[in-house]
Amino acid sequence: MWGGKKAPDDDGESAPRADAASVDAGRSTTSVRSTPRSHYDGRQEPTERTRLLDEGRRPPNSDGYLDPDDPAVSPYNLWSVRFLRYFTILFFMVSCLWWTLLLISIFISPPGMHSRGSGFFDFAFTCLTIGNLSVQIVFFITPAKALRVTTAIIAVFLIIDMILILAVPRLRLEEGWVGIASIVWAVFISIWCIITDRVVAWGKREEEERLTGRPETRRTLKEWVAVLVATILTTAFVVVAILMTGTLSVRARDSTLQFAGERILVDGDKYAVHLSCVGNVSYTHGKRDPAILLEAGEEPAEYDFEHWAYNAVQNGSISRYCYWDRPGYAWSDNAPSPHSAGMSADALSEALAKAGEEGPWILVSAGTGSIVSRIFSSRHLKQVTGLMLVDPMHEDLLHRIGNPGRGFVLWGWGVLSPLGMSRLAGAIFKGHTRQDRVYGRNAYQGGKFIKAELQENLVADSLSKSEVVSARNIQSSETPLVVVSSAVKCRTDGEWERKQRDSTKLTENLVSWDVVNKAPHQVWRTLEGREVMEKRLKQLVKAARKVKATEEE
Length: 553
What we know:
This protein is of the alpha/beta class and about 550 residues long.
């Protein structure tokens, strides 16, 4: 035992060792602990409560009790304590199984386990549950009030999280039954850990009183280290729970942001995508003019790409355009995994049909969105009358998106996204708004967005590449084509420049190819870029009308 006087026990209780007189008095009573062993010899079968004192395997001290250092002095002597430990281990195994299923569902959605949100919060709640159970199992025999207090704080924040998820419709929809089950289980386990530690503390005191005559008031160095480590771990869990609650609160706040258009269920009502159309349907010589269908690149369309189209409507260059958010972007739900570019094209097609939007369409896409547009075009040859690709991603460069290292980094950021450290810091200290977080400059920090990028990464160089290669073979050679490239990107990346040139050969009807000077990858962010894009779009609309008239003749 650690030298010196023992500190008060965990619950602040202490009891002096009984003196000789009290021991003698105790022996004259009928209590079990003070009855001589000879009373039982040959006359009464030892029970769980008496055998350690009566079987004589460990000689008692002169006062009839075991030494406090005797290994037999343990709360494990009580069936209730053993019962709690067995069930704690069982709960740990169940949690690990659930954790495994949630990990798999990030990459491949098991039947019935898809949630419209990212799934990272479910995973985080389960990680916290496993952490609580691990501490409880490892330090089971060393109960401490500090451990119970920190676990109680965790339980309080988890209860707040549960209330937020159940009370806010959008959070409840995104988390689904998987998220609700995960948070309810986390709350239950945190309360279980508190009760278990309290019962073990009671059992420890009970056995010490029975076997040594008084509750122990000392701790060994090993016990103090165990209490310290357990408290440090649970304190870290408290910080995690606080950050997760803050992130959920921000999500609840962001869910109140209104949007134009509507959310439409697709893919057998598994998830919803956001679709919006602006402007009026116009006719030329009795024929419906083509509408512009925007496909954003690496950012949500609302983040300024759509603003360019709106200005084009105001300037009279076009009369109507529609835009949507790919699964996981802005107001759209995450799709089940795996999810390829072709699946996004099919989701867009279904959303347009359900919304009653009809072609003909001129597809205007940027960056990685051009992959989706090209697949969509190949599957709707009669409806698509023009293609405008703004610094498009080429199929031969999809390996950059599908890089395994990038995928691992995305997964890591996704696992950490429920903590929301960047989002919380931005909201508290930098004044970031709901618009910034939902579709603006900070949208990339959200779990849904990270999940969408991870899904693109997983199949970019396999399934998506196969789909776009097939689309190139199917694409009509008569479709008018405009390519607008970034001079900055082309100068700094020779391979990108070569693939931009190859993109001009997607059809045999190239209207123009412009390399905009000083324009970044997001060409529309410079005045010259916007002017070139709007000018070429006008030409593309005229060329599309001409091709349509020729086909009808």
